[in-house]
Amino acid sequence: MQAPTAPHQGPSTPEELLTVPQVMASLQLGRSAVYDLLRTRQLASITLGRARRIPTHALTDFIRTRLDQEAAA
Fold first, then answer.
1. Which residues are in the Helix-turn-helix domain (predicted)?
2. Mean pLDDT of all residues in the chain?
3. CA 61 – CA 54 distance, rounded (Å)
4. Angle at 72 (CA atoms; ends 71, 73), nearest 5 degrees
5. Segment 18-28, tens digit of pLDDT
6. Distance of alpha carbon 49 from alpha carbon 31, whole angstroms
């Protein structure tokens, strides 16, 4: 008997990772402000060696959350 196979989900697109300067430019914030967001985990990131990278979806989620908070206030 053959084991069931998972359905093909199509080609996966790699997640784009942003650098801190790219996030700084996107949010128009300074370096310290971006690192504060990372430190307080308001903005998700990964560490690769000594480099911090922010997935594009994390930046989008952060902006969406802030917009929702502003709308609720």
1. 17-66
2. 88
3. 11
4. 95
5. 999 999 999 99
6. 19
